[in-house]
Design goal:
The protein has about 90 residues and is mostly helical. The protein has two domains: about 1-30, no CATH class; about 30-90, no CATH class. The chain is about 40% helix and about 0% strand. It has helices spanning about 10-15, 40-55, 70-75, 85-90. The longest helix has 19 residues, at about 40-55. It starts with 8 loop residues before the first helix and ends with a helix.
Length: about 90
């Protein structure tokens, strides 16, 4: 790692906070999903982050900013329905 250099914010956080002590690079998985547009990618990211929050009760360690776009499609009252905490409901 090249601490102190420019790059993606997640990489900077990983290096600055020495997250390798808790999450070795060999254990991290990264996946890209091709999309037709930046808006589509942002919407997909929003659903993935919401799924993570519902499953684990917090954002992933390198995601300090929540992507609110999922609420635009599924509604702002999603947490009012207890069924939403069932992982099978979210992943459609």
């Amino acid at each position: 790692m090249n601490r102190g250099k420019t790059g993606h914010m997640a990489g900077w956080r990983y290096a600055f906070f020495h997250f390798n002590r808790y999450f070795p690079l060999s254990n991290l998985r990264v996946r890209w999903s091709p999309t037709s547009s930046k808006d589509t990618a942002y919407a997909l990211e929003g659903r993935l982050l919401l799924t993570y929050v519902l499953r684990y009760g917090e954002l992933p360690p390198l995601n300090y900013k929540f992507n609110w776009s999922a609420f635009e499609s599924i509604g702002w009252d999603v947490f009012d329905d207890p069924a939403v905490f069932d992982p099978a409901v979210l992943v459609r």
